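Bug report

Summary: structure tokens for FixJ family two-component response regulator differ between web form and batch submission.
Environment: batch mode, default settings.
Steps: 1) Submit the sequence below via batch. 2) Compare with the web form result.

Sequence submitted:
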Amino acid sequence: MTEMAATVIVIDDDPALRDALGSLLRSVGFEVRLLASVDDFFRSGRPQGPSCLVLDVRLPGKSGLEFQRELSRANIQLPIVFITGHGDIPMTVQAMKEGAIEFLTKPFRDQDLLDAVHVGLARDRAWLENEKALETLRENFGSLTPREREVMSLVVTGLLNKQIAADLGVSEITVKVHRSQVMYKMRAKSLPELARMADKLQLTPERPQSAKSARD
């Protein structure tokens, strides 16, 4: 499957600067979305593939820093490269503490902007890959039966089959069967790999159900 094209979103209320940045970014192969305001972003939404936002600090209606905080509150992951003609140290510190990639003061070198955008896109690509892998893990975990989830949560703590059997009130053979199904459904090749999956899922040992109430 081919990788989705990287998109750079530029939000700046200066049409001439928007067009200039659009030409620069397209010249190195990026898909570009040029917007005049934060409202335009919310109308168009976040691109599906790797993305980076080039954002003017001073915008009509809502500042770039306010927009950065709003994205964070809405849990919208999007690397930001700030550009401004009126930057100061407190503003820069605030933006970087909130996770900005770079804070460039106009006029800036084209290469400085391109370097920052490449960093942002690499970060977003890694985040998207991690989210996709986590989604697959959640789907696999969702395919487990309640008893298999119990067994998995206990297996990854290092308990032996006979110990798990005693905790759950079932036979050791039953635990082996469930354990085998867990490994198959989670697509885990080893116990350490299964433990890493449990860690990513933030899985904690479940309280064993009684033998009567749990279905094998």
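Above is the batch result. After comparison, the two runs are identical; trailing whitespace caused the diff. The two ends are 39 Å apart (CA to CA). The chain has nine helices and five strands.
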